[in-house]
Amino acid sequence: xxxxxxxxxxxxxxxxxxxxxxxxxxxxxxxxxxxxxxxxxxxxxxxxxxxxxxxxxxxxxxxxxxxxxxxxxxxxxxxxxxxxxxxxxxxxxxxxxxxxxxxxxxxxxxxxxxxxxxxxxxxxxxxxxxx
Length: 131
Known about the structure:
By secondary structure, the chain is mainly β. It has a single domain (29-123), classed as 3-layer Sandwich (Rieske Iron-sulfur Protein). The chain is built from one helix and ten strands; from the N terminus they run βαβββββββββ. The protein is globular and about 45 Å long. This is Rieske-like 2Fe-2S protein.
């Protein structure tokens, strides 16, 4: 993964921080709690092998996604079954009426991650004004 891009008014500064060894996810613990600063996340690998580092609490009722289930190429909340992909986008809400698209408006925070040489790193950014 490349370094995140700057916007027109801000520059993005930061660094890659090692958060886990790849073998940690591959060895019986498919969901790993990660804390970056004061923010809590959950790290997982989806069925395509892609990594996700998303906000740890479901926006519906605050359930801890570390207790969720990996399924259908994402992470399903253990409380009411909301389903999130590795970008943090909600892709399904089981109790919504047929045809509802409310899930498209729901997203949990996501941090870019990369994997190199058996190490997983997260992008920790500091956004500052260009002036």
